[in-house]
User: Fold Transcriptional regulator from Vibrio renipiscarius.
Amino acid sequence: MNYIVLDFGGSSVKCAVMNSNAQIMRQFSLSSQVDSYDSWLDMFAPHFDKYRNEFNVQGIAISSCGAVDVDSGIIHGSSALPYIHDIDVKALYNERFNVPVELENDACCAALAESWIGKGKHSDHFCLLVIGTGVGGAIVTQHSVMKGHHLHGGEFGYMIMDYQDDQPVILGHLASTHALVVMTADKLGVPVDSLNGLKVFEMYDENHSEVIAVVDKWLKYLATGIYNIQYSVDPEVIIIGGAISQRNDLIDLLNKTLDSMLAVLPVARIRPNLEVSEFGNDANLVGALKHYLNRQGS
Assistant:
């Protein structure tokens, strides 16, 4: 069977036609910058009709930011897409397209992908840590995502890491790719929008001394978060996702930072086992499909 899978991001929605083995047969993107869900559905409808006819699409699977209630179809919380929240998303699709619809939080989707056919498929207990504009994640036990009472399980980015001027500072504001860019721009005295994660690491590779100092500090923040996850959840493996995880030496850099920390912590010597996400930018699509198949009993 074939399905249309959607991954809602802050500026665009990744769309794919996939079969039940997670093979992507068509892929495209649409803007997520609209004023209402009805406007988004109006834009999406001709694409759905086209691919439903071409591939006999049987359902829609959705990965979304926010605290997703998979039963009610309501996305709680807030995000860069205000129109997706506090409405019955599943009902909107059902009414418009008359096919089954399932949705799940994006980090949970990425974790399901790893648990299904990725780096976590042989692990009973693992965590996913996604590094991007913020820091997100998920906890997987016995191949099920542990969402918690308030649907915020695995929101590692909210861990308080420091205090500045008596104000708490969370991991997401210290160890995200955006945080790295902001710290680098501040150090170099340049506009934040003149940099991105790729440019920062290009300067790092060129042995720019000031940038090396910033990256080393950022790695310490990230490694500290990983250490805290290890000792609070005790997973077999922590899988690192997000675009920056595709940098070949990121795991080596984190392991060296962790080694330095553990060398001066004689009472805590469990070394986190780090892996890079299997799917890169397609993890949310793969996991949304798996969530759909689980819910629909396919």
The mean pLDDT is 95. Residues 2-104 form a domain with the Nucleotidyltransferase; domain 5 fold (CATH 3.30.420.40). The helical segments are 37-55, 89-97, 106-117, 177-188, 197-205, 209-233, 250-263, 283-296. The first helix runs from residue 37 to 55.
